[in-house]
Amino acid sequence: MSSQTKQKSRTTRTWQVWAIYVVLAGNLSEEQVLKQACPSCDATQLCNCSSMGLDFIPPGLTGKITTLNLAYNKIKHIRSQDLQQAVNLRTLLLQSNKISSIDEESFHSLGKLELLNLSNNSLAHLSPAWFGHLFSLQHLHLRGNSYRDLGEIPPFSSLRNLSSLHLGNPWFSTIKQGNFEGIELLDELWVDSGNLSQYEPGSLKLIKKINHMIINLRNTNVFAAIVRDLLHSVTWLEVREIKLEIEEKSLVQNSTLPFRIRKLTFKDAWFTDKYISRILVLLKQITSLQELEAIDCVLEGKGAWNTEEIASSGQSFVETVSIINIIIPHFHLFFDLEGLESQLKNLKRLTIVSSRVFMVPCNIAKHFSSLVYVDFHDNLLVNNRLDETVCEDAWPSLQTLNLSQNSLKSLKQTTNSVSRLPTLINLDISQNKFGEIPDVCDWPKNLRYLNLSSTQIPKLTSCIPPTLEVLDVSANNLKEFGLQLPFLKELYLTKNQLKTLPGAAPIPNLVALSVRRNKLNSFSREEFESFRKMELLDASGNNFICSCEFLSFIHHEARIAQVLVGWPDQYVCDSPLAVRGVQVGDVHLSLMECHRSLVVSLICVLVFLVILILVAVGYKFHAVWYLRMTWAWLQAKRKPKRAPPKDICYDAFVSYSENDSDWVENIMVRELEQACPPFRLCLHKRDFVPGKWIVDNIIDSIEKSHKTLFVLSEHFVQSEWCKYELDFSHFRLFDENNDAAILVLLEPIQSEAIPKRFCKLRKIMNTKTYLEWPPGEEQQNIFWENLKGALKS
């Protein structure tokens, strides 16, 4: 029994090991497939597999992946096991595939998923089972599929944390009660329902609060019902592609106050004169509505509105009207809206942009009594029409006026017109082709902000009002700025031709300055620190010369990173060439590049000191003497070793000190030259050729003498001339290793007293016998006999 049990145990272990191996091998193969299908998934939390032609979700997805992008592929089906291991997934992007079917359990393991995008696929229905376990889902995109409704069972009932929902498609036709059950709060709801034909009233009432709802709606029959359901929930309603026709039903029928809706936007809508009159009346019933907006809309009409009906329906509560790019095919026939004056009193903000407005009649402008903001940019206003638009007593409360990108030509006339606006604070007249600027202009007394950018003014004059706090004169090719603006806090000089920062003294309160894309090469510490209140400086986009002074300031100024806008990425060196294209903060020039004159001066001083030291050392160690001796020796080496016998003129060349001349000339010369036979001696005083270089005289005398007689004494070794004679001669004599030298020691000399440069002389005195002058007369006779014998040998 025991052996059978052991055998069974071994078999069980074997199967366990085999099973583990199979699992590991399967995991390895899946990881390899994942790497091949989507290389970016390797060792990263972001897995970007978009636009790779995949027709399946690659296997091997693990829990470390938080973002999976499979958009723009060819995936048709999502299986239940495809995403089973991706338990930490936060973002799943599957838009623009060919997905037509999803297993009910495909998303069950994605409890942490926050964004799911299934838009632009081929889903013919939506299953509540897909979303049942997505408890953390905040953003769900389902637009662009082929489902016609949201099904019988509420598909989103478990999505308690949902913030944005995008749904619908060109075939989406039905919204039923209960479709949005479970959803209470949404930041954004987008319903693409251009062909919506059936809407059950109350369907959208289930959502208690929607900050922004976008609905594409062509069928006006359901418009009123949808608005009524949204009165108490939506804050901003945006209706797209609607073609509004006459609507008699009330938009607030059976609805109780208070309403929530604050803003209504029509985008890509189509209106007629009749419906404009009716919608204005109906919208007055929505007492909470404060902002009305029309974007890219078409108005088929001439402004022939039912002004009596509009006026009799009461006062409008709308305070902000924005009309952007409205198309009026017959705008040249458009009426002046006379009769609507009573509806303009409460309006505070008016924007009419890109709509070919060329004037506002004076009698209409005078009734905008509460208007504080007007934006007329990108229209057709000219100076003559502006004069009528801003007539006397018009726009009495206006504080901000935007007339940019119109057809204004005269700055003088423009300032004359706006000077009639006593409360005006902010004025934008940029992108008008003024071309000239007068010396004196009339401005509103309270003007604080002025935008004159891109107006082709060649310079700045005292026309600029001194009351300004913000001035923008960008893109005008200005070469200097010197205006006295004591209250100015912000100055924008972008895209001009300035080479230096403007002076700080005329603008002492400046807080923000932009000189981006000028011709600024650098700025100094003094310029920077002169702006005492500066908090922001944008000098990016200039071609900086990275000089030593500029770099030193940049590297040592502590506030650079806090003050410079775009630092360090937008600040690049243009020169020197070696650092072109390098960020200013990364450049560090060498000491030689930064202090060239100082370095050159130091090098010169060092060279002078080295030369001075060399001279001193040379003097101390007789370097000049050694050089001269070497030169003489080299010359002597070129001459023959021995002069021919016929050229020998003397028995001996006598080398002695001038201090020993009395003994040499009166005793030795007399004794030797008067001997029998007499000796011929060569003395430098008597026998040197006048005018000949002493070195040549010495060498020639030695070569023409049979012997060389050195009279050594303390005076000899201390005498400069003796040193020269001895050393010029000993190069040749001692180099030939002969016995032509005779040493006569006139007085005792210690060998240590002989200079070290006379190394061969010292060697001879230590190795050869020399004659020593004796004090006694008898011994002197022996001395002379020995000397004569040496000369004869």
TrEMBL record:
<feature type="disulfide bond">
    <location>
        <begin position="441"/>
        <end position="463"/>
    </location>
</feature>
<dbReference type="GO" id="GO:0042497">
    <property type="term" value="F:triacyl lipopeptide binding"/>
</dbReference>
<keyword id="KW-0395">Inflammatory response</keyword>
<keyword id="KW-0391">Immunity</keyword>
<dbReference type="Pfam" id="PF13855">
    <property type="entry name" value="LRR_8"/>
</dbReference>
<keyword id="KW-0732">Signal</keyword>
<keyword id="KW-0677">Repeat</keyword>
<feature type="disulfide bond">
    <location>
        <begin position="362"/>
        <end position="391"/>
    </location>
</feature>
<keyword id="KW-1015">Disulfide bond</keyword>
<dbReference type="InterPro" id="IPR032675">
    <property type="entry name" value="LRR_dom_sf"/>
</dbReference>
<dbReference type="GO" id="GO:0002224">
    <property type="term" value="P:toll-like receptor signaling pathway"/>
</dbReference>
<comment type="similarity">
    <text>Belongs to the Toll-like receptor family.</text>
</comment>
<keyword id="KW-0520">NAD</keyword>
<feature type="domain" description="TIR">
    <location>
        <begin position="648"/>
        <end position="791"/>
    </location>
</feature>
<feature type="disulfide bond">
    <location>
        <begin position="41"/>
        <end position="47"/>
    </location>
</feature>
<dbReference type="GO" id="GO:0006954">
    <property type="term" value="P:inflammatory response"/>
</dbReference>
<dbReference type="GO" id="GO:0043235">
    <property type="term" value="C:receptor complex"/>
</dbReference>
<feature type="transmembrane region" description="Helical">
    <location>
        <begin position="598"/>
        <end position="619"/>
    </location>
</feature>
<dbReference type="InterPro" id="IPR001611">
    <property type="entry name" value="Leu-rich_rpt"/>
</dbReference>
<keyword id="KW-1133">Transmembrane helix</keyword>
<dbReference type="GO" id="GO:0045087">
    <property type="term" value="P:innate immune response"/>
</dbReference>
<dbReference type="InterPro" id="IPR035897">
    <property type="entry name" value="Toll_tir_struct_dom_sf"/>
</dbReference>
<dbReference type="InterPro" id="IPR018247">
    <property type="entry name" value="EF_Hand_1_Ca_BS"/>
</dbReference>
<dbReference type="GO" id="GO:0004888">
    <property type="term" value="F:transmembrane signaling receptor activity"/>
</dbReference>
<comment type="function">
    <text>Cooperates with LY96 to mediate the innate immune response to bacterial lipoproteins and other microbial cell wall components. Cooperates with TLR1 or TLR6 to mediate the innate immune response to bacterial lipoproteins or lipopeptides. Acts via MYD88 and TRAF6, leading to NF-kappa-B activation, cytokine secretion and the inflammatory response.</text>
</comment>
<keyword id="KW-0399">Innate immunity</keyword>
<keyword id="KW-0472">Membrane</keyword>
<dbReference type="InterPro" id="IPR000483">
    <property type="entry name" value="Cys-rich_flank_reg_C"/>
</dbReference>
<keyword id="KW-0675">Receptor</keyword>
<protein>
    <recommendedName>
        <fullName>Toll-like receptor 2</fullName>
    </recommendedName>
</protein>
<dbReference type="GO" id="GO:0005886">
    <property type="term" value="C:plasma membrane"/>
</dbReference>
<keyword id="KW-0325">Glycoprotein</keyword>
<dbReference type="InterPro" id="IPR000157">
    <property type="entry name" value="TIR_dom"/>
</dbReference>
<comment type="subunit">
    <text>Binds MYD88 (via TIR domain).</text>
</comment>
<keyword id="KW-0433">Leucine-rich repeat</keyword>
<dbReference type="InterPro" id="IPR017241">
    <property type="entry name" value="Toll-like_receptor"/>
</dbReference>
<dbReference type="Pfam" id="PF01582">
    <property type="entry name" value="TIR"/>
</dbReference>
<keyword id="KW-0812">Transmembrane</keyword>
<dbReference type="InterPro" id="IPR003591">
    <property type="entry name" value="Leu-rich_rpt_typical-subtyp"/>
</dbReference>
